[in-house]
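Support reply, case 0932

Customer input (verbatim):
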Amino acid sequence: MQPYFLPYIGYFQLIKAADTFIIYDDVQFIKGGWINRNYMLLNDSKFMFNLILKGASANKLINEISVQPNQNKLLKTIYHSYNKAPYFKSVFPVLENILNYENINLAKFIGNSIIKICNYFKIDTKIIYSSALEKNNELKAQEKIIHICKLINADTYINAIGGQELYDKQTFKEFCIDLKFIKSNLTPYTQFKNEFIPWLSILDVMMFNSIDGINKMLDNYEFI
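Our regenerated output:
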């Protein structure tokens, strides 16, 4: 999966379901996509936040882009949005650590955030970067994914539900790989006193739920 900053819970369901999770960092950056932005709760409403970047361009790979070294504005927004949330005191230091990470390479910055959150959830899935693999970078789309699966001796490939439009189960089967798509079943939870707003960033889930509660939510999915 491409690295996404503080993505929705389905991303972490996928990580927990896998033995090895590959951060797909040596592919083109999609400007205006979801790599550096998501939704949080602000004043009881859905609010889009952004990780500020330097030199973002669709002509660059994800791991060729940098993060602005000062993300204090975003940290302050998170503080004011969630300082009265039930798990704020345990979650906010994790986010401070993430946003103050010294390596400003976009892929490594987001990769660190994913690892830190997995540690918080006590998820022990092995995480590696696709750029660290010696592979044929001339391959594209599902051919490249199958190639990567073969490199790490994977017999199953799990993708997000949106991947149904990109990957063909029969083609993977021809290479002895079982292709599965993960369908998230979101468990509603209390967000202050407002009506529940689904599919926000994982930071929203963390602010309102215990680690045990989150892990139960992470296991609430099905394969199709």
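We compared this against your earlier run and they match. Two observations from our side: The longest helix spans residues 106-121. The beta strands are 20-23, 37-42, 45-50, 53-54, 66-67, 126-129, 156-160, 178-184, 221-223. Please reopen the case if you see a mismatch on your end.
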